[in-house]
## 1
Amino acid sequence: MNNDESEFAIRRICLKKTIGEERETRILPLQYCDPKIVYKTTNIECLPDPSYAENATCFVKAVNWNKAVAQMDCDLILPLSNISVRVELLKKSYTNRYHPFLINVTVNMCDVIAKRNFIPYGTIFWKILKNYTNVNHSCPFTGHIFARNFFLDENLFPTFPLGFYLMIISVFENYVDRPPKLAGAIKYYFQVKEMEAKKRRKPLPRYN
């Protein structure tokens, strides 16, 4: 192996994506590359308004050290015809309390789905709905609603600082003649962490 090949062998392509910076690709020595960051689901709570939904279940299923997925189900009692979604992000501090962090936005999802609104977080949320739920069509929504194998794809978001987070997703039904009413909320807990390498199992001892 010549010097050029040796130099190439200790390099890799690093993708850097941070808050407030554009995505860029750099070829750097291996020791300077950022480790892979993953957003691992840790817990989920479903809090529907009983007048809008029933039979709600939520739970998390572990896949491996770096990934866990959420499963959600509920049956709508009333149709949701004109919904707005508020997404709030909170980060756990050293005092073990969650504090607002970066995101607090409300968007009319029916407008996003109908392509009347192109707010970035609304578009991201719509991608998530299409990939993991049966809420993949235009308004209204009725009957059984579910999500399968849901997790946050780190490629959809800027890289958050390492730590524990809580995302509160509140769903409101909008009315012409009265204020919006909360139909339900989801509390989604996740950890931003460095990817753990797969642990190799030690070979079993061989006996003659």
## 2
Amino acid sequence: MAVLYRALFTWFISLIFLILVVLRLDDRVRWSWFVVFVPMWLYDSILLICLITSLSSSDRWQRGAIKHLSCLGALVIKVTSQILLCLRLDGADIKLYFVLTPVWIGAPFLIANSFLSLFDSDLVQFSSRMFNRCNSNLWRR
């Protein structure tokens, strides 16, 4: 049942955000882009609190801790790109490639994490297995 509430909350926040974006793009409101992104930052702050509390639990060195840390890194990249995008949209003289740099940095890691989640593995387990295979092949020769 908790998954249902999380999904409904995510859809609600996304709906509010999209309504604010449409209002801002149609020039119905003259708010700053930082105000338009408030629902996303509210959602990100709740996600950050959940990630920190799950990492600070007594069994934090479990198998899922690496996934929590990768989610935390993705959250930092997302918030950084949101701030740079809001600055650019509000008229700051920032080049577009500076705005998209966090996305370009995070995209390969997120793609690898999504691909490895298909096999119920994470990036650290995959890299350690590959490293062990390479070492065993080197010692056989």
